[in-house]
Amino acid sequence: MHTLRLLRAAHNESVWLRRQKRYNYRQTMESVEDMPELLFVEHFRLNKSTFRRLCNDLRVHTSLRGSKEIPLKIKVLTALNFLLATGSYKRIVGVSQNLTQRTTSRCVRQVVDALNHPTLMSKLIQFPQTVQERSLIKEEFQRKYNLPGVIGCSDCTHIAIVKPAEEEHAFYNRKGYHSLNVQMVCI
């Protein structure tokens, strides 16, 4: 009986130490503002000022909130890293945010739901409505990139998913994992 108590105490201490380590690491991630701009863009695919504006918009226009354990910044950084930078749990879990896969999934889902809020959608996604707007965009593409007649760009990315039970082969990509191939249009 004494041995069982010792094992349980050791297990509880081990669990507590892992949680404490994750909590401490998350606290240091709040100092992400100290990260050099180029490294920040490499990890999260947008610059710090855009990130700050995004966090503020999410705070003001949606119900997305942080908690004591996972601040709003960390939730957004986790989603950005997962959705835009890696597309894979394998690279993000334990490496960049020190979050479990379950917590990462929850953060990504919460941020994506918040980004789909109608107020944010209308603010962040705007297609040129008039001939003048389209002409201005064409001129900008011509001036910056020497591409005539362009008003937008299209790109694809692989969003990692859990292996589906049916038609598994249809979701296995050339990069060696299961994903959805998502196409985006940017103007």
From TrEMBL:
Q: Which PANTHER family match?
A: DDE TNP4 DOMAIN-CONTAINING PROTEIN-RELATED, PTHR22930
Q: Which organism is it from?
A: Parnassius mnemosyne
Cross-referenced InterPro entries: HARBI1-like
Question: What is the official name of this protein in its record?
Answer: Nuclease HARBI1
